[in-house]
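ok trying again, last paste got cut off:
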Amino acid sequence: MVPTWRHGRERLYVCGPDGENVAWYDRESSRVNLIAEDRRDAVLEALQPFLAGPVTVGPPPAPTPVELARLSLHPDDDLAPNRPGEALLVELERDPRPGHRLRPDPRRRALTAEQTAGEALDRLEEAGSHTLHSVPLPGGDRLHHLLIGPGGLFAVHALYARRQRVRVADPMVTVGRREALPLLRRLRAEADRATYALTAEVHPVLALVGPPADVRLTLPPRGVRVLQDGELAALGRQGGVLKPADVEALHAMARDRRTWERV
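nice, full thing came through this time. structure:
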């Protein structure tokens, strides 16, 4: 018996003596899916202590259109395997640049920010969400993270701000003594491009990774949420915007690299 979480749903897999899956029990739907019909009695006997009330027993359901689209997606076009900070990892591998004690490579800090935020977002899968990382956009731009869940769609930009003072005066963002940049304008533009690609509203989020020493907002930024990395879990606690089927359909569309070629 192997308990797992898949797409936010709890499943209990039943394995044969050779370790091969012969059935799984989906608690939410109260259904036992049999891969090997000849082992029905043995499977039900093994699952008996875990069954709550009546259950439906039968072969696995036919693949949905979303599942068929995923199966037909070429591996080179599938963005789902991207790791947090995938683009930076590739860039650093190709051009590592020797480090300097007083002037560390800023790409390393940016990578830390993306990995920290990405790991926090990946943990939301148990709540029925999916996160894509390093989503490429035409022109060399990219979304650091795209969260798709019951609470909607969020384009999350990770910014390294450890022990730094952060000042947000829309559209400018200042970290420490660095030059102020119109980052919020860029985030809104990227979210608009994602909205166009997916035909569903995508909300921009600025994730401050650190934690920062201090954060000051002159005014609430227009249309952009500013969160610290420890607050990203709140995005997964929202609900009532997308149904599970909508989440899966949007994830299937977003993970296809070709979806982003026209934005």
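cool. The chain has a mean pLDDT of 91. Residues 133 and 145 are 5 Å apart (CA to CA).
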